[in-house]
Amino acid sequence: MLLPVATMLRLASRIACLIVIVSFAIFAVEQTDKASNRQQNALKGTSHGSAAPRIVDTPVHEGAVHHAIDEVANGLTSPFSGVTAGSTSQWVIRGVGTVLALLVYGLAIGYAARMLRIRV
User: Which regions of the chain are under pLDDT 70?
Assistant: First the structure.
């Protein structure tokens, strides 16, 4: 009876970790794209002799899958939001949330699943 519970815990742990990792990877790609666009706009602005370079962010068009992944990942990392409550850096907020989620969902739930399996 406990073996299926351990298997389900392990599967849920892996799915949660995968969602959190994919969400952070999407975030990182978007942030580097925005930074690249800002840098290119800054270089274009200074090459024309203007004193203040224009910084234009391109809008992010989220698809349904992207939105669903972000929603689930936000739900998975929301228990850890108090740790980064004082930070304004999105990299810190997302990075710490991802690491803590991986520790809890990957290590702790994986460990619990192994303990359930040993006891059978």
Answer: 1-3, 46-61, 119-120
Please give the sequence-ordered ranges of beta strands (E in DSSP) within the chain, or none if there are none. Answer: none
Cα-Cα-Cα-Cα torsion 75, 80, 81, 85, nearest 10 degrees, comes to 180
Q: What is the pTM of this model?
A: 0.75
CB atoms within 10 A of CB 68: 12
The pair of structure tokens assigned to 118 is: 């040993």
Structure confidence at residue 61 (pLDDT):
60
Is-contact 45 54, C-beta < 8 A? Answer: yes
Task: Name every residue whose Cβ is closer than 8 Å to that of residue 24 and which is 6 or more positions away in sequence.
Answer: 73, 94, 95, 98
Burial class (CB in 10 A: 0-12, 13-18, 19+), 61: exposed
3 state SS of 54: coil
* pLDDT given at position 60: 55
Residue 44 CA to residue 90 CA, distance in Å, equals: 26
